[in-house]
């Protein structure tokens, strides 16, 4: 059985990945301070967790997954602080303290995910500090930028993944099982006509690249971005779709466009319709309004299929568990 600890656990993408892989696992704990995320996680996985801070914990997992708040690492934040004291992203360093206090029960594998901005020159020193401290704790670190498009999901979502293995073994990103991208049409709902999803606010219409002239695009390129029209895939899903930048818009008629629906963004993060239906019970729709909570829960998660590929390598290499893959590619216990 794989024991997993989720810090900044969100809606449990790591749990969902293990479920999809059919891996016998136990979530020894889940730590998340935002109440809506905890409520969503409890509904998805039938738990009774309460909102809590990550500070003060000492647990014994095989795999620790953490993805600290990204706002102060994000390139879209002009005032980002990285993980400096007082920033939201500072909590990534709190994970180091938790691991250090575990002593001989340190997790065998630590998976950390964050935005690509952590590799920027002014933010990179913080990431380097994290890598150095993990090395002092006995881990060998490997990191790479992974895009959800390469794992079957039609969403251009680049994220830094750092995999730290206790001991001298190294995680080999070249072993990740990548998949052909499915077309966005497989993820879109049919005949979305509800007015709540139509782009009709002037400030957004002025940002639609399809409706702008080449001269307008050139003149504004240093001031703001334009919203792309979705064709084969969308861009990165964020907390909100009715602002720029967003994941793109869908053309429904001549000069008429709509936002992605809540169900669509959940699908594009790798979750099933059954998962989304559970969320609708917890966070019901209101007449005429988009559901900001459901958008935010999806936009802050990790794409499930990327984690599936990472876990498959971890398990096949026997970094973290007493599981191996048999000749049919199915996982089984080693006795």
Compose a concise summary of this entry.
This protein is an alpha/beta fold and 335 residues long. It contains 10 helices and 10 strands. Helix content is 27%, strand content 16%.
Structure overview:
This protein is an alpha/beta fold and about 325 residues long. It has two domains: about 1-180 and about 305-335, Rossmann fold (3-Layer(aba) Sandwich), CATH 3.40.50.150; about 185-300, DNA Methylase, Chain A, domain 2, CATH 3.90.120. The chain has ten helices and ten strands. It has helices at about 15-20, 35-45, 90-100, 125-135, 200-205, 215-220, 260-265, 275-280, 290-300, 305-315; strands at about 1-5, 25-30, 65, 110-115, 140-145, 160-165, 250-255, 255-260, 325, 330-335. The protein has a six-stranded mixed beta sheet with strand order 2-1-3-4-6-5, with helices on both faces. α1 crosses α10 (about 305-315) and α2 (about 35-45) packs across α8. The longest helix is centred in the middle third of the chain and has 13 residues, at about 125-135. The protein is globular and about 60 Å long. Mean pLDDT is about 85; it is low at about 70-80 and about 320-335.
């Amino acid at each position: 059985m794989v024991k997993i600890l989720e810090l900044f656990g969100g809606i449990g993408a790591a749990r969902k990945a293990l479920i999809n892989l059919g891996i016998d696992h136990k979530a020894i704990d889940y730590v998340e301070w935002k109440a809506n995320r905890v409520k969503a996680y409890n509904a998805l996985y039938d738990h009774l967790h309460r909102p809590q801070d990550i500070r003060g914990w000492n647990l014994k997992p095989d795999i620790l997954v953490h993805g600290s708040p990204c706002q102060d690492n994000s390139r879209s934040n002009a005032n980002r602080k990285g993980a400096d004291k007082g920033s939201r992203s500072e909590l990534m360093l709190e994970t180091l303290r938790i691991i250090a206090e575990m002593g001989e029960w340190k997790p065998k594998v630590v998976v950390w995910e964050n935005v690509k901005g952590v590799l920027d020159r002014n933010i990179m020193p913080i990431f380097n500090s994290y890598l150095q401290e993990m090395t002092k704790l006995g881990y060998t670190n490997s990191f790479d930028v992974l895009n959800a498009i390469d794992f079957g999901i039609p969403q251009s979502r680049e994220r830094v993944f750092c995999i730290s293995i206790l001991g001298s073994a190294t995680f080999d990103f070249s072993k990740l099982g990548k998949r052909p991208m499915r077309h966005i049409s497989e993820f879109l709902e049919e005949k979305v006509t509800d007015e709540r999803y139509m782009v009709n606010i002037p400030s957004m219409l002025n940002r639609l690249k399809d409706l702008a002239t080449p001269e307008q695009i050139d003149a504004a390129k240093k001031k703001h971005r334009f919203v792309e029209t979705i064709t084969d895939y969308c861009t990165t899903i964020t907390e909100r779709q009715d602002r720029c930048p967003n994941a793109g818009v869908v053309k429904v008629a001549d000069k008429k466009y709509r936002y992605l629906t809540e169900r669509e963004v959940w699908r594009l993060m790798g979750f099933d319709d059954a998962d989304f239906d559970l969320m609708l019970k917890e966070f019901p729709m209101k007449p005429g309004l988009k559901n900001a909570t459901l958008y935010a829960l999806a936009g802050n998660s990790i794409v499930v299929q990327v984690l599936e590929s990472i876990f498959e390598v971890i398990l096949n290499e026997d970094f973290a568990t007493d599981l191996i893959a048999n000749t049919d590619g199915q996982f089984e216990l080693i006795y």
